[in-house]
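Q: Here's a chain of 157 amino acids. Please give me its 3D structure as tokens.
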Amino acid sequence: MTQRRDTSFDGMIPELPHWNDGQGIDVDDWIGAIGRHDHAIGYSRVFWPEFVLHDGCLLRAGFSPVSYAAFLEKADGDRRAVEAVMNHQHIADMLMGQFNNGEAVTREQVVYVGRVLKEMWAAKLARDFPELRVVVSFSEEDCDEILDYQITVYQES
């Protein structure tokens, strides 16, 4: 489990130490001060995404049936491989693309978000699909490139 209470957010959220005339601010108080309901609603789509069953595959809702068919053909019918590729999300792409504030992201930030996503997606999938044996995969091992950190979902064989 993620130990969020023991996490130092100052390194991941560089503005925290600058609040209150340099005395800093707690991450929860900071969100209370600057958080927006519309952003929270948007982030919910990333942190608690919708999944559907299609042709025996567990896929993120809104997938392209054309892409699915092409991936299935390329994978010689290996549905697990299709799930893994169609459900994968590069964490750095998400942080720099969807939530772009113009700053580069660090390994610490990417790994933290990846851990949280893994926990949330696993909880959601266990709740929504209790009959399936679902793997939510996120490797924290050092990657050569920050863009190589990714999360994915597939069913156990």
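Q: Can you summarize the key feature?
A: The chain has two domains: 8-47, 49-155.
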